[in-house]
Amino acid sequence: MLEIKNLTKTYKGGKEAVSSLTLTVNAGDICAFIGHNGAGKTSTIKCIVGIHDFDKGEILVNGMSVKEKPLECKQIMAYIPDNPDLYEYLTGIQYLNFIADIYGVSAADREQRIKEEATAFEIEHALGDLISSYSHGMKQKLAIINALIHKPKLLILDEPFVGLDPIATLHLKNRMHSLCKEGTAIFFSTHVLDVAEKLCNKVAIIRGGKLMAAGDTKDLTNGDSLESVFMEVTKE
Amino acid sequence: MMKQILTLSRVQLKNLFGINEMRYSKDKKKKAAFALLAVAYLLVFLMVTAYVSSMSYAFHFMELGEIVPMYLYTIISLVMLVLSFFKAGSVLFSMKSYDIMVSLPVTKSAILISRFVTMYVTNLLFSSIVMLPGLAVHIYFAKPGLSFYLTSIPVILLAPLLPLTISSILGALIKGISSRMKHKSLVEVLLTMLLVVAVMLGSVGMGEQAETMDLEAVKELLSIVTVELGGIFPPALWYHNALQGNLAQLLLLLALPTIIFLVFVWILAKNFLEICAGLNASYAKQNYRLETLKAEHTLIALLKKEAKLYFSSSLYVTNTIIGYILALLLAGAVAVMGIEPLAEYMGASDYLPLVVQLMPFILSLPLCMTSTTSCTISMEGKTFWQLQVLPIKAADIYKGKLLWNLVLAAPFYILCVSLLLIGTKPDIITALHYILLPLVFLLFTIVLGLAVNLLFPVLNWDNEARVVKQSASTFVSMLVGIVSILVPAGTAVGLQLESYSFFHAVVELLFLAVTVVLYLLIFRKELISIMK
Questions:
Q1: Which of B168, B190, B239, B360 has the fewest CB atoms found within 10 Å of its own CB?
Q2: A1-76+153-236 is a CATH 3.40.50.150 domain
Q3: What are the sequence ranges of the domains in chain A?
Q4: What is the pLDDT of residue B99?
Q5: CA nearest A122 in B: which residue?
């Protein structure tokens, strides 16, 4: 579902954030992308979702290049940023409606999906209020519902558990599992190695813009903890 | 507290005009944009210098050199009053940086004064640019003694204080009242517009009063102008008298703004948190029940989003709608009183037929002075990522933004043109140009605004004033827009034609062509690359 081939991203000024990164996430995979601060996780994610351009390499979503067919890729993809800067001048429901309009979700489908997710994330009562009145966690929940509204085939999340309460965290994990069973590929960055180890069937470790290790979680850890593998792999 | 004010002010001043960004940015494109902006500022500076110097020279030529300092002082004070009024409230009560600052061990007064300092420095820069060339010419001709310098230097340094304080008091009052209302933005926009219209009507009244004076009495011209300027702005008269050696009025001129400023800061500091909290509070009912939802076309969804974005910021509304309101006032005045009083007000009563032909240009000037598009991309700010990840073409986003400006401007345009036609009752060909010329200029300004904002986007702002008032995009759009109307209008005056129909048609076609080219350029790859 997601194929990254030799991705290189250099920022203006010459800093190489991602260097020849190659990675594959298949349908039904939950892949954790882990690395230190500034390792290149967010840069990679922003290249996938179309926020950043990139210099070399190729990113394919469901076989389509994000450079050549950006709209088709975005149509089947969803992204949740680490800091949800949403349209604070809209109410929650106006925001979700706007997103649904853009993705062309039918009125009946959006009603059903919003109802389901908003109830599960315990946010339905607040949907009529302006987003500016939301707490960080509520904005995060709204960003998650926004990402799920068009049933994406590829879900990209940047630090998705930051700011969520325990119930919402549990619900998100369950949703990730159920989406994965339905064939959605999930790729997310995290610093919480414990979550990555328990939740994901695949792990990718990045350091200084280079992919240091990637593969099935079980094969990679080989009976050891992910924490010790991570420390070993990212050692200078 | 002084150290706190200095530290806070330094941080805010670094953000002024994006200087810090230019200094440390490694982006060559950004640096080039800054250089282009610097050139534009330099051009304006040269134009202002030329205008002020020649005006100062003209006064001396008419042997009215004595009034030059007070005249310049009045001009800068009134301009600063208007400019500060539109942004004072938003700069003073911006909550975004307040959140960070309030957690630091600094006093509320220090936060407040540091915000004043930013506005003070901007205004001082402006007043110096206007005052110094004019005074240089005055010094050359009048050769004043040491007392002139000893009086003028502190006066110039303190010149921004009074207009800044007055506009801040008005801004604070409006913010204070609207902070208690549910629809804060709407109330703020209405109060601001009400005040602007009142001032406009008041100034027209003053103009009429001035015209009843016997300006033919050349011998008394000096004292008449002095009294008139003093009537408009009494501190100008104090400055004039101080230059004549009146020490008491000098002290009054220096002490009064300082005292008013300090009292205002003291009072405001007491209510600062309350006003900030009130302004930034959201009414959360937490009682929503999901009902039937409606699916809409992408462009309609984008248009609705643009409307919500627009009305979410009172600063954005007041600064972009003001031109339309001025145009409406102008057209309304023509409809009620006819074109003659306007020609008389412009000092062109002998050229009535020309004024009739210039009317579409005169109307276009306020109508096209501002556009929502000139900062529409920048207004997305930190939410810009959302547009980047959605499955929509950049072109559709731009269309939504252009369309919103058209939707907003359309009722004003229709009303203005209708009122103008009622007031002037022109022949059919002239009427056609009354309709077409403002329309073409309006379309041009809207497309120009977006093109310029795509060239000079600012997304990392923490105060709307940074993009609405101080951005390169707004400045360049307004400058190019005004010059684009003034050049053909000036040409029309210079040509002195029998019939202006052909000339109007040429201008319409020319600007329509430029608008189409600009529109096509916007959708070219280079400009769309901003989306990356």
A1: B190
A2: no
A3: 1-76+153-236, 85-151
A4: 65
A5: B286
